[in-house]
Amino acid sequence: MFTDPDETSFIELVLTNSRVAEVLQRAAALALPDWYLAAGCLFQTVWNVLDGQPPERGIRDYDLFYFDPSDLSWEAEDVVIRRAAAVFAGTGVTVEVRNEARVHLWYEKKFGRPCAPFTSSADAIDHFAATACCVGLRPEGESYRVHAPYGFADLLGFVLRPNPVLAPRDVYEAKAARWLELWPRLTVLPWPSDTAETPRGLAGASTSC
After folding, report:
1. Is there a contact between 6 and 151 (Cβ–Cβ < 8 Å)?
2. pLDDT for res 108
3. Which of 30, 106, 105 is CA-nearest to residue 65?
């Protein structure tokens, strides 16, 4: 089977972070529906390793997405969060567990704009604020499943390109400013001036990364 060399490099790079590897292993034991480890803990590990820094430097938390539309109550999500807290105890990192099927219920209150329900965890990953952020990973058999809708060129090339499908401009620019302090070699591309400050049609996404 053909393997994308950039995908192989991505997997090898993120697994140099022992905390990523451990979170993936423990997350698999939770058996959550449609789950991915996503966003910051992955792309920031890549930048750290390529920049000659400790793999875990600057990573605030480890985002674990799952997708369960069968019960959209906070109480059901909280049960999963509590289970996960026990599973990840002792890892030394904060693992943020979120049911991406519920994002539309709280997104507008937090970010000031509405979004419609996701269709999957991959749909959530597709709409982070920058293309380099849009990556997800989980074990699958003896290998891994990678979700990277925009490929790896921006990530491996230290290019921060806006993905203006949902996340507000200020979210992108605030994240860019923080990341430039950690990785000064980043090329930060500007938010497109002709992009309206409105959410995409009938879809939504988390901007956490």
Report:
1. yes
2. 84
3. 30
Paired tokens of 92: 């030394």
100-134 in b/e burial notation, b at 16+ Cβ within 10 A? bbbbbeebeeebeeebebbebbbbbbbbbbbbbbb
Is 0.85 surpassed by the pTM of this model?
A: yes
Residue 13: Cβ within 10 Å count: 22
The CA R_g of the chain, rounded to the nearest whole Å, is 16
pLDDT 10s digits, 80-118: 999 999 999 999 999 999 999 999 999 888 888 788 889
d(CA 126, CA 118): 10
pLDDT at residue 193, as a whole number: 83
* Percent of the chain topping pLDDT 90: 79
- Torsion of the alpha carbons at 62, 67, 70 and 74, rounded to the nearest 10: 30
Length of the chain equals: 209
The yes-or-no verdict on residue 206 having pLDDT over 60 is no
CA dist., res. 124 & res. 27, Å (int): 18
> Amino acid identity of 55?
P
Q: What is the rounded average pLDDT of the residues 13-25?
A: 97
Helix (H/G/I), strand (E/B), else coil: 37: strand
pLDDT given for residue 194 in this prediction: 59
CB 101 within 8 A of CB 67: yes
Domain ranges of the chain: 5-188
